[in-house]
Structure formats: structure tokens, C-alpha cells
Amino acid sequence: MKKIAEQYNDYIYPKPITNMQKAISEDGYVDISNADLFWEKFYPEKEYKNSLNVFIAGCGTNQPIYFGLSNPNWNIYAIDLSENSIAYVKEKLIENNIKNVQIEKQNILDTNFKNEFDLVISTGVIHHTKEPKTTLTKLVDATSVDGALSIMVYANYLRRGVYDLQKIFRHLKIEQNKEGIEFAKNYIENIIPKYHEAKRYYLAQKDNYDSGIIDTWLNPQDIAYSALEISDLISDTGAYFQGWFDNVFCYPNAILYGVEVNFKLLDDLNPLEATDFTQSHILQAGKHEFILRKKKEFENLWHNISNIKETIKVKSSSFLSVSKELDLSQKLGGQLIYLKHNSLLSAPFNFKEGIIWSIVDEVSQKSESIVIHKLLEKCNEFSKNNNLGMTFDINELKQILHKMWKQEIITFSMK
Q1: What are the residue ranges of helices labelled H in 264-393?
Q2: 267 pLDDT exceeds 90?
Q3: How far apart (Å, rounded) are the C-alpha atoms in residues 22 and 27?
């Protein structure tokens, strides 16, 4: 880890957000590991609480500031290998009068926590370690029995060209300095062919500044995973895969609409297999973001439709907007926009789906959720009041809700 520590000390990463308060309040900056904003994602079985004991493992420059400001009732312990990143964070903690964050230089492998933290966050760290599974095991050990882990590791689908260029730059002995950065940028922008996979990745990224170039193209140690390889990473660590943070590009239901595909043939795939299928088609993912739990009962939780009972609550997902409204006269279900994904359009709803969504959304606008059996009553009541001549049954409703969950349109919870 010496080379990695030296790299992040010389080129702190990610790019520091100098005014985090403004970024949060005015620019809408969000870290998806913020369980306070996405409670049902992390703890679907728990009543909400605003005080958590949190461990940020490999915190970089921004996460301690963001979480300290966003969640003043959290107790946060953060570690990193970069002395310069830590110094920057400490300066910002004082500047922002943040009292709930402790930060120090520490290697994850040197920690010995046992069942201590409600939430463990590791964003873009595990794939830079020599022993990713051992590192993840340390993080699982640190998590309380009913806690959650928010993990991000590189995905190999979009990053395939990255490793070709890393290999080229190693052969050419390109170093981590100003000249090396300029060489790498010029090589990508002007020398490799336009169809090279590395160019596609480069153009898709927002971190083509000096530290970002170093982190991606001149990094001495990183590994990317297929969705299937996530299973190997997790196995024997004491954790279970609860689900992806965002399903949009993980299930074919969200992005292959209009294509002649028999989705029922894919029903037996586990969530990792479904994602590998989807990403093998679109080659979009440069990272995997997922939630782990320590109890087996949460494994593949909502992927298993058998877990969707009539008593489960439903709520609309975040970052959605309406593109086309439900149209009763034309019996059109409408369509949504994924604001988080450059205004990508969702699959169009059929008429029944549109009715279900409109009822769920109406409830969610009040920051509430609705129990499935109550949703069924409201759907049939809506049909009767509007003389639609339609009947909704519980099994059909569950199937539609499960499809919407795969499309990242709704979330489920038990409380």
C-alpha cells in the first residue's frame, strides 16, 4: 500500500469541494451512502433514527465534511492513508465548526473493530488494496449485527479500455508527475483511435483533472469486477448482498423495453447474474454500488418476490420526474424521467401500471408510504370511481410492483 499512500498524498482525491455547505444547500450535492436520505434502502426493517455510529474507511477529501454537515447527530470515525487529505479535512472541520467527526491516518487492515458501527462506508477503496477480500472482511467485522455497509468498487464493463492503457503506460514508464499527466491526456485524446474503449470511458468521466488522471490512468494498483465477481468478493466475509443502490442499469426491465426479449427467461437469475446480463448488453457501468448486511435474511431481499408481502410498504424512488401523465381518456399509463441519469426515460407504463404509480406517487408526495394491501384497495376504488371496468388482484399487483422496483421506480420497506 506504500505506492497507493504516496499517490494519494501527492495527488489528493477526489477533487476537494471547497464550500461544502453551498454544495449541499444550493447545488444539491448528495452522497448516496447517506442513509439518512435513503433510509429504506439501507434499513428496510428499521424505524428511522437520525443518530448513527458511522465508520468511513478511506474517506478521501470530501466525505467527512459532507456527512458531518449533513448529519450532525451522527458520530463519525474516518480514516485514510493520505496525510495531505487528512490535513485538508481537519482544516475544513474547524472552518465549518464540525464537532462530530474524528479522523486519523490508518490502514483498514490494521483496524480491529468488532460489531461497532451502524453504518460502514467504503467508496472506491477496496479495489486499490492488495487483499480486497481481507479488507472487506475487516469492514464487515466492524459493522454491528444489524448494521449496513455501503460499498463501491470498480466495474469492469466500462473500464475495459482503462486497463489496456494502464498497461501501455507502464511499458512506456510514464510516471506520476506533470509530464506523465500531459502524456496520458494527449495519448487518450489524440493518439488512440476514436473507437477505443478507453476514449469512451475518458469522455464519460468528470474527473479528467490532474488527480483524476493519476487515479484512473496511472494508478499502480486497482482491480475492476464483473457483477458475477462481486459474489466471489463477498463470499466468506460474513456479509450478504442485500441489493444494488440503484437498479436502473442492473436489470434489463429498465433499459431493454421495446426490445423483443422474453423477460420471464431471466426470472431465475440472481441480482448479480441479472446485472451481468444487462451490462453485457450496454457496457455502461464503471462502478458497482451496493449494500451489504450481516444477516442472511436480507440476502437478495427484494429481488426475491416471495419477500414482498401484503404488509410491505411502498414509496416512490428519489430523483424521478414525470415525462407523460396518466391519460384516462386514452388509457395511457404515462412515463417517467430518471433525473439522476441525464433525464433518461423510463419504460412507458401500461394503463394498470400508470394507475398504480399515480397512487403511490400521490402518497409519496406527502413523504409517506402505502401498505400493499391498502394500495390494492385504492387501485380498485380508483377503477370503480372512474368507470374503468378493471379489477386489480394481489398477485398481479405484486408482479407489477416487483417490476417497478427493478426499474428503480419504487422502494419497499417493512416499517
Answers
A1: 271-282, 351-364, 372-385
A2: no
A3: 7
Three-class SS state of 82: coil
Cβ atoms of 193 and 151 within 8 Å: the answer is no
Distance CA 344, CA 282 (A): 14
Nearest to 220, CA basis, from 140, 127, 99: 127
The conformation of residue 372, written as its DSSP 8-state character, comes to: H
- Prediction pTM value: 0.97
pLDDT score for 207: 82
Separation of alpha carbons 381 and 414, rounded Å = 24
Confidence band, pLDDT 50/70/90 cuts, at residue 263:
confident
CB 9 within 8 A of CB 133: no
How large is the angle between the packed helices 210-217 and 160-171, nearest 10 degrees? 90
Nine cell digits for residue 327:
391519460
Helix axes 197-204, 160-171, angle to 10 degrees: 110
At which residue does the C-alpha cell 388482484 appear? 393
Mean pLDDT calculated for residue range 287-297: 98
The DSSP line for 35-77 is TTTSHHHH-TTS---S--EEEEES-TTTHHHHHHHH-TT-EEE
User: 74 — phi, psi (to 5°)?
Assistant: -75, 150
Alpha carbon 11 to chain centroid, angstroms: 25
Mean pLDDT (whole number) for 295-318? 97
* Residue 260 or 195, more confident: 195
Mean pLDDT score of the chain: 96
Cis check for the bond before 348: say yes or no (omega within 30 of 0).
no
Cβ–Cβ under 8 Å, residues 388 and 289: no
With b meaning 16 or more CB within 10 Å and e meaning fewer, what string describes 303-317? Answer: beeebbeeebbbbbb
Residue 408 burial (CB count, 10 A): 26
